[in-house]
Amino acid sequence: MRRALATALLAVVVSACAPGPDAVDETAPHAGHYVALGDSYVSGPGTGTPTGVPSGCGRSDNNYPRLIAAALGVEKLSDVSCGGARTEHLTAPQPTPQGTNPPQLDALRPGTSLVTLGIGGNDVNLIERAAECARGSSCLDLNAAGVPEWLASVLAEVGIRVGSALAEIARRAPSARVIVVGYPTILPTDAGECALEYPESVDRLPSLRRGLEALNAMLAEQAAKHGAEYADTVTPTRGHGVCAPPESRWVEGLESVTGAHPLHPTARGERALADAVLGVIR
User: What is the C-alpha to C-alpha distance for residues 270 and 237, in angstroms, rounded to an integer?
Assistant: First the structure.
């Protein structure tokens, strides 16, 4: 009798603790097919062991798509990000020194459950401009209080292309959760923090920082317009840009000290980007 009663009580407890028919596993929608799209800030060159084909894309086995995939336990990751990618390479092949990367959107499937998109910086050549700026050359426009008119015009054009890409992602992968990933903190708000690293460029850096802010604002705007989400990576990486002390720097300076590409996220930077995206997902 006692054994029968204990068995009955155990059955009640198990039944109460088991998920009901309406229970939702928050990770389940992302445990299927994850597609990572974007440029070198996504592929993470030099942050781990090179992986993927073509090798000219510079994908790392420690980039944020792989960190996200591991955290979510996805069944299939299609990381088609590629260094040097522009918005045009979402729908057109991208030649690299070691092979051609197919159009990135071709990786999407009707059953794709998660998509991240990090792109736009190469369209406005901001990395090249950052390198020139750090070396003491001109940055954007020292006399502009805000964003120079030419850059605002370019960003508007890039915004249209990003918006078109988001619409196409929704068409090809209608059930996917889509997250646009912004660019991290590269330069501090106070340019004086760069006096030791880049003494000849301190007065030029604010114009470049405003350009980076405008790029992220455009990406956030397009995400909102097209029903996607936006992962802010500036806030969690503040204080870890190129002018931070080497031990706390998450974006390399002109001279790499970790193996990551100059002016690109380090391994810790890729971890921070992954955490920002996971924060949106969870």
Answer: 10
Model's pTM, two decimal places? 0.85
Q: Which tokens belong to 54?
A: 């073509």
Q: Which of the residues 30, 226, 261, 264 is marked catalytic?
A: 264
- Tell me whether residue 264 is one of the annotated catalytic residues: yes
Q: Which long-range contacts (CB under 8 A, 24 or more apart) does 88-92 make?
A: 88/161, 90/37, 90/119, 90/165, 90/168, 91/165, 91/168
Rg for the chain (alpha carbons), in Å?
Answer: 22
Residue of 30, 33, 40, 78 marked active site: 40
Strands 177-181 and 114-118: parallel
Query: Tell me: the pLDDT tens digits for 106-144?
Result: 999 999 999 999 999 999 887 777 777 666 666 655 455
